[in-house]
Amino acid sequence: MQFVSKEFLIFLPVVVAINYIIPRKFKYIWLFITSLFFYVSVDVKSAVVLVASIALAYGFGIMLEKNKASENNKNGKGILILAITVHIAILIACKYLNFIEKTVLSIAGRGEDAIGLNLLATLGVSFYMLKIIGYLIDVYRGDIIAEKNPIKLGLYVSFFPQITQGPIERAKNMLPQFNFPLTVDFDMLRNGLLEIIWGYFLKLVVADRLAIYVNNVYSDPEVAVGFTTLVATLFYTFEIYTDFAGYSHIAIGISRILGIDVMDNFNCPYLSGSIAGFWRRWHISLSTWLRDYLYIPLGGNRKGTARKYINIMIVFAVSGLWHGADWTFVVWGVLHGFFQVIGYVLRPLRDKLVDVFKVERNAFSHRTLKIMVTFLLVNFAWVFFRASSLGQALVIIKNSFVFTPWMLADGSLFKYGLDSADFFVAIVGLIIVIATDLVSYNGFIIRERILKQGIWIRYIIGIAAIVAILVFGIWGPGYDSAAFIYQQF
């Protein structure tokens, strides 16, 4: 059962309706039951790993809490290291054994002998393991008290809107809400539904349409040359954004109509003026997790400039590996770290040039230039993220620089799965997404403005949006509606 399946459209109203009538103090039990049901419906085998991980997290959390209360936390560090090691071992067993085996055998010149060692491809394991590790670290630090109720801890780890793709919420935000969930009033319900509708629009109308073109180009990159390939790289940059942001909006909206407040995961990332700024706006729950639980413990920027740069590279290499068990993801992460380090190194030179040429930093032209440069760097790195191998990524990049402007007029762009009508819908969808981000960036939140309108205007907008999704969404035989991009991570 997926967010974009017919089964889910039956499941969700039932969950919301029963959650609304259940007494407040018992809501967490209902949400835990439904979360396990949702997860089992997607992947039965993975549920065993999930339940085992929750049980281990519960036990280690209690141990950390008891040790903290006695002997001045004498053994707490050892317990924490053991707990993190155990959960990372589970993550490696489920996701990275094949990668390790292939890498070792390739170094030995025997890459073709790889047999595949992953014990189980566990859905959402990368996401919920970070939630568990963050929870254990918070208990060790004394930021929160270990959860004594195993069902509440289990709900925190398995909460169904977040289990497969996040946001990677913190225990100190989620656990208190299970004790005192918000009362869902009509305004909160409308807000959540609008968030869900926008998420479905991003996913079904924009992301999945762009994916058709991108998949066709990347399936045979040697043939696609010039503007065809360049368009594919640009389309993928927006495909992964609208796909993942679409899921996040749906997850946040569902959480909202269940009385749970979840952090935002995106904030107009492609309008960032630097790579560091991009990561403050892209996958916010992951970037803040890496900052708080990896970058700062490594020393952050407190141990000198050189150590700061090393820490940045480590964090982004880990980020890349977290996303996928392949060197393409590692290169993607390292590129983002490298871009940031270069940005810091060149800052004095940039500041000098700004002073020499009397550049107004807040001028529209200067800000636009920074946004364009950042976007191009991000777009370049996404090629490695999408490619099936480093070799394919290099081919895509090389072919993107072939100058073939006539392809914009001779119909060549319509040979990769999208006819002229679908291509037009894709461009209109992108214009809507970009325009929405532009006004949001400037403080104009369209959803909030809609909610302030009269009832007839609200209903007209809502119905029109649903009709647009049904008419222009990608449906039909052979379409895999389960394939949210980030679900594979």
Outline the structure in words.
It is a single chain. This protein is mostly helical. The protein has two domains: 6-181, no CATH class; 188-488, no CATH class. It is built from 20 helices and no strands. It has helices spanning 6-21, 27-42, 44-68, 76-95, 97-107, 125-141, 150-158, 171-179, 186-219, 227-257, 275-279, 284-295, 305-323, 327-345, 347-356, 364-386, 390-400, 420-441, 446-451, 455-472. Helix 2 (27-42) crosses helix 7 (150-158) and helix 9 (186-219) packs parallel to helix 20 (455-472). The two termini are 18 Å apart. The model has no long low-confidence stretch (mean pLDDT 88).
List keywords for this structure.
489 residues, 68% helix, mainly alpha
How would you characterize the largest beta sheet? none
Distance between the termini: 18 Å
Tally of strands: 0
Helix content: 55-70%
How does the helix and strand content classify structurally? Answer: mainly alpha
Order of helices and strands: HHHHHHHHHHHHHHHHHHHH
> What would the principal axes of the Cα set say about the shape?
globular
Radius of gyration: 24 Å
**Residue ranges: pLDDT <50 for 5 or more in a row?**
none
The count of domains is 2
The overall average pLDDT, rounded, is 88
Helical stretch tally: 20
* Strand proportion: under 5%
Short characterization:
This protein is mainly alpha-helical and 489 residues long. It has helices spanning 6-21, 27-42, 44-68, 76-95, 97-107, 125-141, 150-158, 171-179, 186-219, 227-257, 275-279, 284-295, 305-323, 327-345, 347-356, 364-386, 390-400, 420-441, 446-451, 455-472. The model has no long low-confidence stretch (mean pLDDT 88).
